[in-house]
Amino acid sequence: MIFRNFFLPHKDTHKKAHLISWEAILIYILLFILLQVGFSIVGYAKPGVLGISGDIDQKKLIELTNVEREKQGLPPVAENAALDQAAALKAQNMFQENYWAHFAPSGKTPWDFILGSGYKFTYAGENLAKNFYSSDEVVSAWMASTTHRENLLNPKYQDIGIAVVEGVLNGQKTTLVVQEFGTTENLPGQPLVNVSGKQTVVPIQEYNQKPELLAAVQTPLSGKPLLDPYSFSRTASLGLISLMVILLVADFIILKKRGVFRIASSRVAHMAILGVAAATLLNSNPGVIL
Amino acid sequence: MKPLNILIIAILIYLVWAIWHHRRDKSLTLVILMEYILLAGLVLILILGIYV
C-alpha cells in the first residue's frame, strides 16, 4: 500500500484517498466510540482523573447577577451569609450523594438547605450550573434560559447566596455552582420556592421544623484533573473534520486536473455536513445549567 | 433551537438529498449509500461525544 494513496486519489485507478474511504470512516466511528467508552471506564475506575476545571469566582457571580438585575431596573440582591452556607451545603450534598438535580435522591429538597442554614424565607429560588470555565459563561447561560432568567430577575428577591465548589461527580472532576435567592419579607400566602420555573409550596410542617444538616466539609482536591475529556474530544473531532475536508478538496482539484470523472458520492454534500458539525463543535460549551 | 436538533435536521436533509440525487443520477450504489450513512453516523458520534 503506497503511503501517498492514504491522502491522494490513486494515480491509475483514480480511487479516492484511503483516509476518506468508507472503510476509514468506519474506523473513525469505532475509534470515537472507543474513546467515549474509555472516558467512562477511567471515570469509574479513577474518579477525578478526568474533568473540567473552571476559574469561577463567587463574588464575580454576585456582581454579574446584580449587573443583569440593574439593567432591568431591579434592585440589587445583597449577599447573605446564611444563603451562602445553604448553597455550600447543597453543593456538598450533590457531591456526597452523586446527583445533578434540585431534589436529592435521599429526598432532601432545596428548602431543606435554606431553612437548615437558618434563613426563614417567604420566597426563595435556586439556580444550578456545572462544567463552566468562567463566571461570565455561567451568568450568560442562566440569562439565555427563560426559567433561570426569570429566577435571576425576580423582583421579590432581596438576598443571594452562592457557592462554587469543586468535587467529583459521576467520576469526573467538576465545579458546581449553586445560586440561592430569597426574601424574608412578609408576603401573602405560604412560603414558596421557585425551582426550574416551577413554584413549589413548602409544606408548613417542614417550614417550621428546621432540618438537621451536616456542616459542609470541604474536601480539598489535589490539583487539576489530568485530562479535560470535553476539550480532548472537541480538538480530536475538529482535527478529523479538518483533515477530511482538506482531503476532499485535494480529491476534487486532482481529479479536475486529470480531467477524470468518477461516479462517487458528492464531495460538496460531505463538506457541507462536516461544516455543520465543525460549526456545532466551535459553538459548543460543556457547561450545563439546571 | 438547540444545536443538537439543528445537526439532526441537517443530517436528515443530507441523507434524503443524497438518495434523491443519486437515484435521479442513476448512480446509487451500495458503497455510495454506505459512505453517506457512515459519514452521517460519524458526525453524530463526534457531536454526541461532547454533548452527552
UniProtKB/TrEMBL annotation, chain A:
Domain SCP span(s) in chain numbering: 63-168
Q: Which domain of life is it from?
A: Bacteria
Q: Gene3D superfamilies attached here?
A: CAP (3.40.33.10)
Pfam families tied to this protein = CAP (PF00188)
Keywords for the protein's UniProt record, in alphabetical order: Membrane, Transmembrane, Transmembrane helix
Which regions span the lipid bilayer?
20-45, 236-255, 267-284
User: Known SUPFAM superfamilies for this protein?
Assistant: PR-1-like (SSF55797)
| PANTHER family tied to this protein | SCP DOMAIN-CONTAINING PROTEIN (PTHR31157:SF1)
What name appears for this protein in its UniProt entry? SCP domain-containing protein
Q: Which organism is it from?
A: Candidatus Daviesbacteria bacterium GW2011_GWF2_38_6
UniProtKB/TrEMBL annotation, chain B:
Specify the superkingdom: Bacteria
- List keywords of the entry alphabetically: Membrane, Transmembrane, Transmembrane helix
Q: Which residues cross the membrane?
A: 6-21, 28-51
Q: Does the keyword Transmembrane apply?
A: yes
What is the protein name for this chain? Answer: Uncharacterized protein
Organism annotation:
Candidatus Daviesbacteria bacterium GW2011_GWF2_38_6
